Amino acid sequence: MKPTTCLSLLALGAALGSTAVYAAEPIEPIKPVQEVNLAQVELGKKLYFDPRLSKSGFISCNSCHNLMMGGTDNLQTSIGHNWQQGPINSPTVLNSSLNVAQFWDGRAADLKEQAAGPIANPGEMAFTHTLAINVLQSIPEYVNEFKLVFGSDEITIDDVTQAIAEFEKTLVTPNSPFDQWLLGDEDALTDQEKAGYALFKDSGCVACHNGQAVGGSSFQKMGLVEPYVTENGAEGLAGITGKDADRMMFKVPTLRNVELTYPYFHDGAAKTLTDAVDIMGRLQLGREFSEEENMQIVAFLKTLTGDQPSFVMPQLPPSTDTTPAPTPFE
Asked: Is the preceding omega at residue 326 within 30 degrees of 0, hence cis?
């Protein structure tokens, strides 16, 4: 995230009189990150991009949550170790710190817990936490940096996930055209985009898609008015609670940067925003949007694209003769 972005957004907010401008709206401007441990962020950035935390030495966090592609991989379901097809669409990592929980089914309480999952998942990075730590412990530059950051010669998975989570906290996207409009710039949106937002509110979309992240704060049933038909086997919250009432209950996705995070829904079945708006209107609201209405809502949704994270790519420390070799074809 560019420092100038933070300063300009904050200055604009101050000039327009704090939150009074958008207090009546169900959506709030994205706030720039307020408090992070910069040393952990820098270490976490390296770990986020380091494929050596996977069995193949090929897959990193960025493989499925590509920061050049809206924090996703733009695939219907992600590709894991040995080209395994993932079971579910990869949600964006951007603004994920604003989520009530992580993963579509909410099985991880926070970013730190989420970061531990893919490393040891046989269908994703296919490693073990022990082997990942062995790799890091074999690289002197990592050992020194972990000691500087966490004050110990011993590298732990707890420290690894803490650093990754701290980096992910910085991946917020403020200063979208819609945020600028919320903060008082009437010219930030076109008439079509404003009409789309009015329709978005009047139709009831804001009941689930609200707050800073425009979603991510609740779990809702996919297919309220009509059943959602899919070949995807994900059960949603029911897979965690075991309750039949929680079947097809998924975390409401953020709509921030949604034009970048196609395809849509937990099964990635909606290839375009036009498709997604049509399906959500019929299945969740019992409403068939006209072609013009659909275009207006899509135009509004595209105004939610904010400043994308911007930083110097990390230089990863080299492996040593004792670093365990990757096994990409096993």
From this structure: no
* CATH architecture entry for 38-169: Orthogonal Bundle (1.10)
pTM here is 0.92
Q: Is 40 helix (H, G, I), strand (E, B) or coil?
A: helix
Judge whether 124 counts as a catalytic residue: yes
- Phi and psi torsions of 251, nearest 5°: -65, 130
pLDDT tens digits along 259-290: 999 999 999 999 999 999 999 999 999 999 99
Using the Cα atoms of residue 22, residue 26, residue 27 and residue 33 in order, give the sign of their dihedral.
Answer: positive
Write down the catalytic residue from 35, 124, 166, 330. 124
Fold adopted by 177-304: Cytochrome Bc1 Complex; Chain D, domain 2 (1.10.760)
pLDDT tens-digit profile of 18-48?
444 576 899 999 999 989 999 999 999 999 9
Q: Which helix (H) or strand (E) holds 211?
A: none
DSSP 8-state secondary structure symbol assigned to residue 17 = T
